[in-house]
Every structure is written in C-alpha cells, then in structure tokens.
Amino acid sequence: MRVLAIPGSLRTTSSNAALLRAASGVAPAGTEVTLYGGLGELPHFSPDLDVEPLPAAVAALRAQIGIADALAISSPEYAHGVPGSLKNALDWLVSALEPIDKPVLVISASPGGAAHAHAQLLEVLRTMNLRVVDGGCHVFSRAKLDPSGALTAPELLAALAGGLARLAELCAAPAA
After folding, report:
1. C-alpha torsion sign, points 133, 73, 98, 29
2. DSSP readout, 23-53?
3. N or C: which end of the chain has fewer CB within 10 A?
4. pLDDT per residue over 66-107, tens digit each?
5. What's this model's pTM, rounded to 2 decimal places?
6. C-alpha closest to that of 37 among 55, 66, 61
7. Strands 103-110 and 2-7: what pairing?
8. Which of 7, 168, 141 has its CA nearest to residue 73?
C-alpha cells in the first residue's frame, strides 16, 4: 500500500507533519508512506487556473495522488477551522479525478483537540467522494515530540497504527 501523507500545516516544525512521519514506523507491513511537502508551493486556487496546462505544483500534487493507493491527512486547527493552505490544496482537487474513491485517513491534532477543524475536514473530504477512515481528533502539540522532533506519545502512536490498519482494510475492499 502506497500512502501519500499530507500535513495540513506549513510550519517547519509542524507536529502534524511529525505525526505523519511516525506513520512509517507503525504502518502495516508492506506500507510505504511518502510525506507530501508541496503545500506551500500551490498557487491560490482559481477556476481560471484549473485548466491545461495546470500550474506545475498542482500537476505534481495530482500525479502523486494518482499513484498513491491511499491518503493520510493530519490537520491542525486554526481559529476553529482547517488551515487555509490545506483547504487550498483540497480546492485544487475538487475537479480532479485522482482523489475520487481514494481511501483517506483523517487525523486532526492541535493543543485544543481540533474538533472543529476535524468536522470540517471530514465534511469536505466526503463531499469530494473520498472514502474516509476517521482517525479522530487529538490533543497534541510539539511538547509530545522528542528533541529530534519524533513523535513519542504512545496514545498517538496507537491511534495512528489503528487508523493505518483500518486504511489498509479499506484499500483491500472494493469501492462501493
């Protein structure tokens, strides 16, 4: 299973990116997790630009999603919502064929728990016809990382492992 992991934060030391980096260590055997790093390179979404030839960063994102078997998205919460940079990336995917029926693990993690952003993200992804595995929203900050930036919180590692196992099951099941 090839998983494209998309962190919803542009922060260099993003705890959500650290959470997705930890996915490789707790994923089912045979799972390859690739961290997407182009969120900040995407232009602001405009239907006028959503034509061939696509902006290079958009074409690259769609191509990476096209070859992935599944997605994993981890989002922080900003002002009770999904960060604008992540919503921008999703807007670029609305008219794309690559994400349709793609299984996606959704995790939201912020110091306040991210419940508002999580609900918004689930709604957007279901509207886009992705097959959602709800990995939950978690109270999480960079304080739960070791000095090297690696995730050490056992409860988050367990939740991530469980979500990835459910994602693998969904990948193995035929799309409805």
Report:
1. negative
2. HHHHSPTT-EEEE---GGGSPPP-TTTSSSS
3. C
4. 999 999 999 999 999 999 999 999 999 999 999 999 999 999
5. 0.95
6. 61
7. unpaired
8. 7
